[in-house]
Amino acid sequence: MKNRLLCVIMAVAMIAGIAGMASAAQDVANTSQKGSLIIFPKIITAGTVDTIVMISNDYSKGVDLQCYWVDSQQNWEDFSFRITKKQPVWFSAQSGQGSINVPPFDFGTGLGELKCWAVSPNQDAQISFNHLYGTAKILEFNYGAAMEYNSWNFTARDVPLAGEVGVPGELVLSGLSGDYDGCPKYLLANFPAVSNTVTAGAQDDNIIALEDGPVRFDNVSLTVAMCNEDLRQIRKPTYTKLKYTIWNEDEVKYTGAWQCAKCWYEGLLSSTENGAEKFLVENLHTNFGMLRVKGIADDGNCGLPAGTSQRTGLVGLTYEIMELPTLGNFALAATTMNGAGKVAVDGAILWDAEDNIIPEFD
């Protein structure tokens, strides 16, 4: 029984890895290239879950990295470390311990993201170093299962190795020469429709019969990180509105689903603020669907003061929990979303570069 479950989980991980190869234009961030800026949209330390972060440098020289843990309320903690030539490093988000030691991801919700980028030796400016990439392994000890996804990577365009990228303290995500890659215009994902029945297995609407046994999709969550983010000591939060468009297997289109978001967002599709019923198998009328999501300025639905909500590019992934009734257990899957196009409004990540300047003394 254990061997069979292990095979299922390994198969899920392989599928997730293949699905994680997000495609995008040459000047748009994706998960299959290397970059100077890397983003891990989903970090979990809540309950019995931990996230193992691995970052690698494939170049023959080392570099310093500046990193920020960020939660859904834009609380953050920064840290930096040096990664040497041809070195992979790893650390636990829950404890901060690993091949290198960093501050733990220690926020009340235990949910958020990680952003890291290459910086100068004095750590006072962001630089070009297009040799970084990473993976995050999410370990769910309660289910006895795990999943893995690739980081979103942003290349510094037309900047020589170790050259400063733009103005210190402002990472411009435009895709233009001298900046980092832009963000996708919107994200795409396939998703299994879930049932609104609370009791697992109580109805068969969202059970898929496969040769080796049935699979029931218990929940599907969406995780997105914003391409606009202010990480300075005195900062302005990023508010946006997630606008969904949904299609079922019969090409029927559903609109009107949306979700208000601040800085970072994660939530079940079936609990979306408006239009959640469109993700349910009872209303989608097929077992699977396709969704498109983009960050737009709020038009009043989110109740925000005028001018505080903005259009922003997104990076993200979906996360599924599947019940395997025959085995009496669960499997997890993470799938990096596919990006399409390039958002018209440049993204920008702001940080206090001047705080890292080493003072000179006579």
SSE blueprint and pairings:
Layout: H1 2-19, E1 37-44, E2 49-57, E3 63-71, E4 76-83, E5 88-92, E6 111-119, E7 132-140, E8 145-150, E9 152-154, E10 170-173, E11 186-192, E12 207-210, E13 213-226, E14 228-230, E15 239-248, E16 253-262, E17 264-268, H2 281-284, E18 288-296, E19 314-324, E20 329-336, E21 338-340, E22 347-350
Parallel strand pairs: 14-22
Antiparallel strand pairs: 1-6, 1-9, 2-5, 2-7, 3-4, 3-6, 7-8, 10-22, 11-18, 11-21, 12-13, 13-17, 13-19, 15-16, 15-18, 19-20
Explain how this protein is built.
The protein has helices at residues 2-19, 281-284; strands spanning 37-44, 49-57, 63-71, 76-83, 88-92, 111-119, 132-140, 145-150, 152-154, 170-173, 186-192, 207-210, 213-226, 228-230, 239-248, 253-262, 264-268, 288-296, 314-324, 329-336, 338-340, 347-350. With 362 residues, the protein is mainly beta. It has 2 domains: 2-168, Hypothetical Protein Tm1070, Chain: A (Sandwich), CATH 2.60.290; 186-347, no CATH class. It has a 5-stranded antiparallel beta sheet with strand order 4-3-6-1-9, with no helix packed on it. Strands 16-15-18-11-21 form a 5-stranded antiparallel beta sheet, with no helix packed on it. The radius of gyration is 21 Å and the shape is globular. Residues 1-25 and 198-203 have low confidence and may be disordered.
